[in-house]
């Protein structure tokens, strides 16, 4: 099968407006989570905002795509290139603003609906294709919090099967909207003070905005043009619990299956993994079940951390951010810390401060609402 490598990364998060800025803040143990009140009708909350006000999906996506293309030393137009850009919330913020205006002023409803087609869920990926001049396949996946890793996997499949030699893939999320905040609050899932993954006193998730986009290429093309290679995609898997709309299978059976499938397809064993970027949402149920799953499969020594205590939970983009941080961890031989963790509830080797380690193979995990489980393995 054709080998697929990553040659460019673009990332923006509450930790920083670039990949390097976010990485340096992460390994320094900083958090981008702060108190904000973006909507006067809602009480202040800890949030992972990039700026003082919520970002737009359009500008967020354009920024990370530009950064990834530049990082890969490519110049548009990239005609024969696939685009796989996903999002969990997509243009929900635009739809909420439109609804408020629509019902506030009946006389200008037609005028307000003029550009509504531009806010359909798949238009974010189409906008990226226009941005880089790509005329190849466009895929706009949505798999809840598993979206980011699944987007990368779908792009890898396009290259592995010989349909394309290059793809732009990842996920972006601008989820700070009244409806999203109210929905998670109604579920009792939002933290009251901050995000503390795997901590005995964890309170819940903190919503964050951000995105990560990658340039994927066949290894042959990357070597041909002497591109910098961050790492190779060794294997991946996606499974579904078929259990509940927002609760995980308490036995974690499908999550275990996704990891085992990923390892098998990567031709790895559990002892080959040096670092696991966990989903680690800091909710009671997710952290508990994810810890059980990891303990059932991996040796006690494997290093683990979640970066959501730094960036907040970027929903569909979270797995993509995890892949980006994992690639830098592997490249620079630094284990990123699980910021926010003070006292772990679980008997796992969780990284609390950044430290050097000989990392060769990493595993990234994402578990989304509806029981969607993804795992991706990365190596040299």
TrEMBL record:
Residues 1-380 form the Ketosynthase family 3 (KS3) domain. Belongs to the thiolase-like superfamily. Beta-ketoacyl-ACP synthases family. NCBIfam families: PRK05952.1 (NF004618). It comes from Anabaena azotica FACHB-119. Pfam families: ketoacyl-synt, Ketoacyl-synt_C. Keywords: Transferase. It comes from the Bacteria. Transmembrane segments: none annotated. InterPro entries: Beta-ketoacyl_synthase, Ketoacyl_synth_C, Ketoacyl_synth_N, PKS_Beta-ketoAc_synthase_dom, Thiolase-like. PANTHER family: BETA KETOACYL-ACYL CARRIER PROTEIN SYNTHASE, POLYKETIDE SYNTHASE-RELATED. This is Beta-ketoacyl-ACP synthase.
């Amino acid at each position: 099968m054709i080998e697929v490598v990553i040659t460019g990364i673009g990332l923006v998060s509450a930790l920083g407006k670039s990949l390097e800025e976010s990485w340096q803040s992460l390994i320094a143990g900083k958090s981008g989570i702060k108190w904000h009140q973006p909507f006067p009708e809602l009480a202040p909350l800890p949030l992972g905002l990039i700026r003082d006000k919520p970002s737009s999906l359009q500008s967020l996506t354009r920024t990370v795509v530009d950064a990834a293309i530049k990082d890969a030393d490519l110049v548009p137009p990239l005609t024969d290139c696939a685009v796989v850009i996903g999002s969990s919330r997509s243009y929900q913020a635009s739809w909420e603003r439109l609804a408020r205006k629509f019902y506030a002023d009946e006389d200008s409803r037609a005028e307000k609906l003029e550009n509504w087609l531009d806010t359909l869920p798949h238009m974010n990926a189409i906008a990226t294709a226009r941005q880089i001049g790509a005329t190849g396949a466009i895929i706009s996946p949505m798999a809840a919090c598993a979206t980011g890793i699944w987007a990368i996997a779908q792009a890898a499949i396009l290259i592995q099967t010989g349909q394309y030699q290059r793809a732009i893939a990842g996920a972006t999320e601008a989820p700070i909207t009244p409806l999203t905040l109210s929905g998670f609050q109604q579920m009792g899932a939002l933290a009251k003070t901050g995000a503390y993954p795997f901590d005995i006193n964890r309170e819940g998730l903190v919503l964050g905005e951000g995105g990560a986009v990658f340039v994927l290429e066949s290894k042959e093309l990357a070597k041909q043009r002497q591109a910098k290679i961050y790492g190779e995609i060794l294997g991946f898997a996606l499974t579904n619990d078929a259990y509940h709309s927002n609760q995980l299978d308490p036995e974690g059976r499908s999550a275990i299956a996704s990891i085992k499938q990923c390892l098998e397809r990567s031709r790895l064993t559990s002892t080959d993994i040096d670092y696991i970027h966990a989903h680690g949402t800091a909710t009671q149920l997710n952290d508990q079940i994810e810890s059980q799953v990891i303990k059932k499969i991996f040796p006690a020594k494997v290093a683990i951390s979640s970066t959501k205590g730094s960036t907040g939970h970027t929903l569909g983009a979270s797995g993509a951010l995890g892949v980006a941080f994992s690639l830098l961890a592997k490249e620079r031989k630094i284990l990123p810390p699980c910021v926010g963790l003070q006292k772990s509830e679980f008997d796992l080797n969780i990284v609390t401060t950044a430290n050097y380690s000989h990392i060769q193979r990493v595993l990234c995990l994402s578990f989304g609402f509806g029981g969607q489980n993804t795992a991706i393995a990365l190596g040299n």
